[in-house]
Specification:
This is Disease resistance protein At4g27190-like leucine-rich repeats domain-containing protein. The chain is mainly beta and about 450 residues long. The protein has helices at about 10, 325-330, 385-390, 425-435; strands at about 5, 35, 55-60, 70, 80-85, 90-95, 110-115, 120, 135, 155-160, 180, 200-205, 220-225, 245-250, 270-275, 295-300, 320-325, 345, 355, 370-375, 380, 395-400, 420, 445-450, 455. It contains 4 helices and 25 strands.
């Protein structure tokens, strides 16, 4: 037998508070995985673990009498430990510094979730000498993770509201490659980030003011920061991040600038900056980002002047651009230079009455295959002349344009394969009235959806 799932284990084995290995349970010594679920009488793992020489995975869930696990109770074969919904668990591994080294935990993967009384992961100096993956979720009394193993590669914390520090020493293991922190509102600093870090993701940490006082780790490939209301700066410089592929900054309302020397231009392919209300300028030298493919600049309300945008424009390597109306007006005259652009998403052009606006000399790139217009509250018409040169356009989406009454009189291009219309009441009425006409603007479009309903 390799796997055993035992619900209500404590009830099945009588009123004794600990699990017992007796004649009736000879199978336990042959298990490679054990799941113990909803055992309200379980207080200790004494006994069963002593005879589980082949146990590689242990799952404990909903055992409310369990307050700690004595470190010596875990077999050396155990590599994966998952504990959840144990409401009275206070200390995960209970041991001492001078405990027998041969009895120390050799767990490599540790997952802990929904343990509201948990205050400490280990009473020892170090949790496990072999730990590689640590994931802690919804442990509302936990203030620190303690001293982490130097073997740790993946660390994720989520919804630990009292967490003040990731490491008691203030330093994370040099081996760490992936760090994710979500909903830790009391965390004001990540500590010194390790030199091996490749993935950094932080979300909803309201006290965090900065990621680094100097530079971020050079191997970093992914940087994602969202809903950090107090974040003022990312780092003094990002130029050392030659491996960086993606930057995603979302709702950091206190962030007012990027490092003066701009972004690394070697491997960066995705740049997304959204809802950063104090940001007054985009990163410098953006035209040099020759690997950049996707750029999203949305709802950054202070990016309104021409000086907010790089004088040399965006890199010609862009294939996808999403931009809010106020920012769109600053780049619209340079759009035709984006000779690789295939997807354009524009939202929030509050005063545009036609699109593209011929009076403002907007020339859309002829290579476009996807175009999305969203929240043009004054838009009354689509310019036939502006669409005429879009011979590659296959996808058109129009949403939240309440004043738009019709499609171009000369008809849409025969190249369009999909048309999506939503929350455009007048345009919807027009299309539904004319959809049966053989020469209607929609007649040659294979796929049409209006307000989520398939038309043809």
């Amino acid at each position: 037998m390799s796997v055993l799932n035992i619900p209500e284990f404590g009830n099945q084995f009588g009123q004794a508070c600990s699990l017992q290995t007796g004649p009736e349970t000879p199978f336990l010594s042959r298990l490679s995985a054990l799941v113990i679920k909803d055992c309200n009488d379980l207080k200790s793992l004494q006994g069963i673990m002593e005879h589980s020489a082949y146990l590689g995975r242990l799952v404990i869930k909903g055992c409310d009498s369990l307050t700690s696990i004595a470190e010596g109770q875990l077999p050396s074969s155990l590599k994966r430990l998952e504990i959840s919904s144990c409401k009275n668990l206070q200390c995960l591994l209970n041991g001492s510094e001078d405990s027998n080294h041969s009895n120390a935990s050799l767990v490599e993967y540790l997952y802990v979730s929904q343990c509201p009384a948990l205050e400490s992961l280990s009473s020892r100096v170090q949790l496990s000498e072999t730990l590689q993956h640590l994931e802690i979720q919804h442990c509302k009394r936990l203030k620190t993770l303690g001293q982490l193993a130097e073997t740790l590669k993946h660390l994720e914390t989520k919804t630990c509201h009292k967490l003040e520090s990731l490491s008691s020493s203030g330093q994370l293991p040099n081996s760490l490659e992936h760090l994710s922190i979500y909903d830790c509102g009391n965390l004001s600093s990540t500590g010194q980030l390790p030199a091996s870090l490749q993935h950094l993701e932080i979300k909803n940490c309201s006290k965090l003011t900065s990621l680094s006082s100097g530079q971020l780790p050079a191997p970093l490939k992914y940087l994602k920061i969202s809903s950090c209301q107090s974040l003022i700066s990312i780092a003094d410089s990002l130029q050392n991040l030659s491996n960086l592929r993606e930057i995603d900054i979302f709702f950091c309302p206190s962030l007012d600038s990027f490092p003066a020397d701009g972004l690394p231009n070697s491997n960066l392919t995705i740049l997304s900056i959204q809802y950063c209300y104090k940001l007054v300028a985009l990163p410098s030298f953006m035209h040099t980002l020759n690997s950049l493919k996707e750029l999203n600049i949305l709802n950054n309300i202070n990016l309104v002047s021409l000086s907010s945008f790089p004088q040399q424009g965006f890199p010609s390597s862009l294939t996808s651009l999403s931009i809010t109306g106020l920012q769109f007006y600053q780049v619209m005259k340079r759009l035709h230079k984006l000779t690789s652009l295939i997807s354009l998403h524009i939202s929030g052009c509050q005063d545009a009455m036609s699109f593209p606006e011929e009076t403002k000399a907007i020339i859309l790139p002829t290579c476009l295959t996807r175009l999305t217009l969203d929240n043009f509250v004054m838009l009354e018409s689509l310019s036939p002349k502006g669409f005429r040169n879009l011979t590659s356009l296959e996808y058109l989406s129009i949403s939240k344009c309440p004043a738009l009454t019709s499609l171009p009189k000369e008809g849409l291009l025969s190249s369009i394969l999909e048309l999506h219309i939503s929350e455009c009441s007048q345009l919807k009425d027009y299309c539904l009235r004319n959809r049966e006409r053989h020469k209607s603007e929609m007649a040659n479009i294979p796929y049409v959806k209006i307000d989520g309903k398939f038309i043809h």
